[in-house]
């Protein structure tokens, strides 16, 4: 692209991310980018710009050849896929912030780029303002990675910080997160771990050369967290963090999982508080490195979109080095064992999960909590059962790589 002229941007969506980007570009006048067209869905919605600033037909924007770069920032992942796929068929340069879109459609998006010559970047889809995809894709392009794990959802991390730092109850902390705009009115994606799952799918493709469909990945959240679980963590001198993790076993198989975990003061993720995200990238030779930054909000995410706009205008595209290098993508390590805490009112869950090394923690009238060892395969297979039962499950350590030594205080030992 000609570096001397103003590059025109077509923007789809004008919510948190779209407005964040627009605001940054309005302030940074030296940047050679201008939002030329903004496409939104609802003509009646009140917006901070005059009505004539908007168009309501996305086809018009896609057909406008005067636009240099298209930015997709709408919330509906299916609609976003329709727009992005059509843009790539037209060979366009596209930036998206939509993690669900990329997680569910990465193989198709790769194929469209190869066939039609378009380019898609999506740094803003994972960990807000932290440049984690580029780091894994470029800096670690040749060094084998052992593990990538972290806190990938700022909303749930904010809630957990309120619970452990300020002794608030879950419901109160959730409402506060919603009031501050960190959590959606329907917070399921955030608190149940589904949002972190989408981000982990994307990271795993760049880090380990394996595209994982979201359905293949076990995910659990904090939506069933109780005071008893919080108390158990405190007695173990730990806090709870929602950890998304992918690592390779000694046999070269992949263990991807999203699971609340006990985290103590010696853990890298212990210092990642409030709405911040934190990702630890562990290289075979360079060791673990912690990347910490704001994981949500219009400006941090808008800044990540802007970074992609600058890169794409300079001719950058993902090389997918690990994906292209891997003739045999790693299989999922279904027999990998994790040590977990489970609280439930359904005793049959223990049998369904095939829990071994059982220890009782507590029994109340209708609920019980136990410690045990579970395989990744059984977690994946029974995840809907666990959710339907309203049960809460967490790892005894964020170090899933090896089963941790039991440093937990058990209130009632099995005789």
TrEMBL record:
<keyword id="KW-0028">Amino-acid biosynthesis</keyword>
<dbReference type="Pfam" id="PF00742">
    <property type="entry name" value="Homoserine_dh"/>
</dbReference>
<feature type="domain" description="Homoserine dehydrogenase catalytic">
    <location>
        <begin position="131"/>
        <end position="310"/>
    </location>
</feature>
<dbReference type="GO" id="GO:0050661">
    <property type="term" value="F:NADP binding"/>
</dbReference>
<dbReference type="GO" id="GO:0009088">
    <property type="term" value="P:threonine biosynthetic process"/>
</dbReference>
<dbReference type="InterPro" id="IPR001342">
    <property type="entry name" value="HDH_cat"/>
</dbReference>
<comment type="similarity">
    <text>Belongs to the homoserine dehydrogenase family.</text>
</comment>
<keyword id="KW-0791">Threonine biosynthesis</keyword>
<keyword id="KW-0521">NADP</keyword>
<dbReference type="GO" id="GO:0009086">
    <property type="term" value="P:methionine biosynthetic process"/>
</dbReference>
<protein>
    <recommendedName>
        <fullName>Homoserine dehydrogenase</fullName>
        <ecNumber>1.1.1.3</ecNumber>
    </recommendedName>
</protein>
<dbReference type="GO" id="GO:0004412">
    <property type="term" value="F:homoserine dehydrogenase activity"/>
</dbReference>
<dbReference type="Pfam" id="PF03447">
    <property type="entry name" value="NAD_binding_3"/>
</dbReference>
<dbReference type="InterPro" id="IPR019811">
    <property type="entry name" value="HDH_CS"/>
</dbReference>
<comment type="pathway">
    <text>Amino-acid biosynthesis; L-threonine biosynthesis; L-threonine from L-aspartate: step 3/5.</text>
</comment>
<feature type="domain" description="Aspartate/homoserine dehydrogenase NAD-binding">
    <location>
        <begin position="13"/>
        <end position="123"/>
    </location>
</feature>
<comment type="pathway">
    <text>Amino-acid biosynthesis; L-methionine biosynthesis via de novo pathway; L-homoserine from L-aspartate: step 3/3.</text>
</comment>
<dbReference type="InterPro" id="IPR036291">
    <property type="entry name" value="NAD(P)-bd_dom_sf"/>
</dbReference>
<keyword id="KW-0486">Methionine biosynthesis</keyword>
<keyword id="KW-0560">Oxidoreductase</keyword>
<dbReference type="InterPro" id="IPR005106">
    <property type="entry name" value="Asp/hSer_DH_NAD-bd"/>
</dbReference>
């Amino acid at each position: 692209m000609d570096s001397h002229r103003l590059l025109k941007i077509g923007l789809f969506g004008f919510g948190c991310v779209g407005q964040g980007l627009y605001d940054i570009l309005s302030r940074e006048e030296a940047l050679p980018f201008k939002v030329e067209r903004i496409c939104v869905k609802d003509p009646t919605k009140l917006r901070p710009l005059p009505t004539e600033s908007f168009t309501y037909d996305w086809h018009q924007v896609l057909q406008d050849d005067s636009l240099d770069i298209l930015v997709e920032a709408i919330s509906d992942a299916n609609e976003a896929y329709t727009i992005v796929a059509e843009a790539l068929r037209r060979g366009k340069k596209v930036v998206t912030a939509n993690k669900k879109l990329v997680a569910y459609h990465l193989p198709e998006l790769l194929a469209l780029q190869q066939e039609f010559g378009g380019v898609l970047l999506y740094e803003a889809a994972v960990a807000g303002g932290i440049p984690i995809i580029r780091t894994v894709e470029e800096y670690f392009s040749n060094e084998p990675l052992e593990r990538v794990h972290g806190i990938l959802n700022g909303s749930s991390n904010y809630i957990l910080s309120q619970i452990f730092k300020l002794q608030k109850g879950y419901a109160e902390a959730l409402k506060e997160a919603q009031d501050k705009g960190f959590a959606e009115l329907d917070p399921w994606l955030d608190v149940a771990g589904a949002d972190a799952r989408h981000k982990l799918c994307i990271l795993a493709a760049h880090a380990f050369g394996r595209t994982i469909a979201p359905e293949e990945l076990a995910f659990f959240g904090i939506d069933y967290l109780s005071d008893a679980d919080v108390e158990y963590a405190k007695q173990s001198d730990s806090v709870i963090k929602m950890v998304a993790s992918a690592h390779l076993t000694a046999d070269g198989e992949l263990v991807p999982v999203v699971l609340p975990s006990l985290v103590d003061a010696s853990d890298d993720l212990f210092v990642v508080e409030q709405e911040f995200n934190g990702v630890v990238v562990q290289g075979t030779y360079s060791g673990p490195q912690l990347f910490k930054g704001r994981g949500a909000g219009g400006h941090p995410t808008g800044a990540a979109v802007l970074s992609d706009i600058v890169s794409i205008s300079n001719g950058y595209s993902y090389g997918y080095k690990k994906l292209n290098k891997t003739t045999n993508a790693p299989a999922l390590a279904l027999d990998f064992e994790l040590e977990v805490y489970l609280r439930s009112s359904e005793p049959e869950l223990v049998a369904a999960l095939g829990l071994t090394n059982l220890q009782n923690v507590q029994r109340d009238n209708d609920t019980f909590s136990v410690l045990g060892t579970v395989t990744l395969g059984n977690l994946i297979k029974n995840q809907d059962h666990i959710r339907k039962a309203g049960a809460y499950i967490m790892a005894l350590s964020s170090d899933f790589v090896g089963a941790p030594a039991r440093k937990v205080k058990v209130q009632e030992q099995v005789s």
